[in-house]
User: Fold this.
Amino acid sequence: MKGLVDKPNYIIELLEGGVTLEDVIDGHICEQALVEKSAFAVGNLGALMRQHTCWQSIVPQLQPYFPVKCNSSPAVIEVLASLGLGFVCASKAEVSLVLEHGVPPESIILSSVFKQLAHIKHAAKNNIQHLVCENEAELSKIARLHPNAKLLLQLTTEAHAAETSMAFGFSLKSCRHLLEKAKELGVQVVGATFHIPSSCQDLQQAYTHALSDARCVFDMGVDLGFNMNILDIGGGFTGSEFQLKQVESALRPLLDAYFPQLSGVQVLAQPGSFYVASAFTLAVNVIGKKVVTHHWDALSHDEKNDGTEFLYYMNEGVYGPFSRKLLGNTIASPSVHKHALCTDEAVYPSSLWGPSLDQLDQVVERCLLPELGVGDWLLFSNMGACGLEEFDCLSTSSQLPVYYTISTSDWYEMQEAGVALDSAMKNFSITKW
Ligand SMILES: *Cc1c(COP(=O)(O)O)cnc(C)c1O
Assistant:
């Protein structure tokens, strides 16, 4: 196995002839077994590119802007930047990170709802003009500190409000007032943005409302003399090709009706999970185990094994890379490393906990697993969209290393994917792993 060395902060391992991701995980588990059995993550950079290909083939009319909050690990930013994505940043630190990767300021949107003054000043200084805004107080701050800003007004959507209980964005009712205020303060408004989360049950209805609202905002803006030319339809793409096609079929007729291509409006989206979720696998170690035995009559019918249930404690939990759990997401059951389940093997109801012994630190409430021993490894796939800044610490902290890999074929495909990619990858050199 050989590695591709980039900047000193991360190494990409090139998987040659027949070496698989599983082999890489095995290799690191062996290494870890000799030391402290720390958890680690493996990132498959080829997956990022494959998601990009999928995106371009299904929704070529939507320009992808990656929300840095989903995964800010340096290799991810590097690859996505070289694929030509734009970036949505919520803070000064995120802006600095993407600027360091050579992303042009025109391809960056500063998105946070309430912006610290320093972050607005930083954006102004670095010539980042696209800022999201949703209320009058923010408008005044921006007018004062960044008079050349080009604003995207954040519209609420019912679907987003239902998910978060904190409904950000302004309603259509307050729209004219906000636009007039912008006019008065001399700040440019160039478009609108909204977000429909992937938990939304009725995509058709949600996009219908959101796009007709956005059309109203555009019309009012044009009325007041603004040059309205950017529509941002937010995130909410799970990563599956099937779901992307569903969104596409809900969207296309609406875009044709409200924002036809001839209108010259540039349409953006913010696919976060879509790009990164499947690219990362997390390996954690079982550090403790408890057995609970239930009485027969307390068991439901399908649980009539011998009434045994296991609680396993792992070396990472919700205060680390499983923080998504605290935000109400479900963490899918892991697979057991080096364990091909035989059909007649006993499995037991099990719950998986982090190391803190805190009530909240339950990662998986219930899953069926063969009996595990302390020291066994569990592999959680689809861990690329951490939701918080965990991957930031992941990539720099010594306890939780991230190993990046790419298969040779993906590597060549990446190189063929275009000039931009070539230039970003040229500083990698091949060394022995
Ligand atoms: C988190 C977030 C996204 C990314 O969402 P995904 O569903 O992961 O694509 C996009 N837009 C906004 C406003 C967000 O808060």
Notes: DSSP finds 14 helices and 19 strands in the chain. The mean pLDDT is 85.
